[in-house]
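Researcher: If convenient, please comment on what follows.
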Amino acid sequence: MKDNLTEDAEKLSKNLKEYVSARIELQKMTFVEESARVFSRFFSTTIIWLLVILVLFFAFIGLAILIGQWLENPAFGFFILAAGLVFFGLIFYLLSRKWIEQSVLSNIYNMVFSQKKMQQDEDEEE
C-alpha cells in the first residue's frame, strides 16, 4: 500500500511538472504569436500611412504649383498652401490630441485582447 502511494505521488509529481512545463510553453508560444500579430498589423498600417502621406505630399506640391500659376508667382502658391496647412495642422493638433491617444490605445487593446477572448471561448467549449 505504501509503495502504491509513493508510486502515485511520484506519478502525480511527474504529471504536474509536465503540465506546468506545457503551460509555460503554451504561454511562450501565445506571447510570440500575439507579438507577431501586433507587429505585423503595426507594420502594415505604417506602410499604408506612409503611402497616404506620400500621395498627399505630391498632391500638395501640385496644388501649390497650380495656385502659383494662378497668382503668376510660384512662391506665393507655396506660401499660401503652407500657411493653410499650418493653420489646419494647429487646429487638428489642439482639437484631436486626446482623441488620437485614445484611438491608438483602443486599437492596441483590441488587437491584443480580442485574440485572448477568442482563446478563452475556445477553452470553455472544450
Notes: The helical segments are 2-71, 74-125.
